[in-house]
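Incident review: delayed structure delivery

Summary: a single-chain prediction request sat in the queue longer than the usual turnaround. Root cause was a stuck worker, restarted by the on-call engineer. No data loss occurred. The affected request and its eventual output are reproduced below so the record is complete for anyone auditing the incident later.

Affected input:
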Amino acid sequence: MVKKEYICEKGKKSSVVIEDLSVEIKEGATLILGFAGIGLIGPIVANTLIEQLSDVKEIGFVTSEYLPPISVFYAGVLKHPFRLLYSYQHNLIIGVCEVPFQITSAYNDLSKTICNWALSQDVKANELVIFQGIPQRGIVDEYPVYYAAEEVMIDHLETFGINKVEKGIIVGPEATILNEALTNRLNAYALFTPVLELPTPEGAASILEVLNKIYELKIDTTSLIEQGKDIKAKMLELAQKAQEYQKQQALPGATGKEYTGYFQ
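Output delivered after worker restart:
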């Protein structure tokens, strides 16, 4: 199989490997990157796009010396942990990274490599979008979506009724990707939504509804919302059992042995 490898002079420990050279990427593509951050918003959004866009093709992967020693597989088939796919119909490049990087110094190397490829003669991407969760405690009932963007993108995003975040910080690989985009001609923006300290499919659903508007997609988020309800119900059940356990522990003569199954 003929492959093409992109190595950035400033990001020599990472590379983009394109395995399917038959796929032509149209100029002006949007690069959507989903990283494994808190709430797993990025991978949930990216994988839902991959599952529901009918013409998505896997074109390659990102490799790095900094990727942790973790493999992933679906239906018994091994997959690269950081995959690249493309939808010709919507001109969307989707990158999904399902493992966290080992050290933060990897982020700069990675961001330079990805942006170098996105701006190469074979791609000529125009936009870049990342996602990040806003950590919340307890039960979250609403998942509004906010944005932070390069100035050139603000008027466009405002037309879709998204509220901007007035002030804050972005951390992790998403931050270095955005910082790198500020130095080149990619027009970058970030979408935020509240998340829990566990997978938050309802937050991902809210972001996908925004992407539906911006890129004229028809992604169905019903199953994600149902998954979120199931997770919330399990959280409530565990919280109630924990309270019952604590009450029983407070009773005179209680040993706690009767409630060993509460957290199984």
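Verification: Residues 66 and 237 are 39 Å apart (CA to CA).
Action items: add queue-age alerting; document worker restart procedure.
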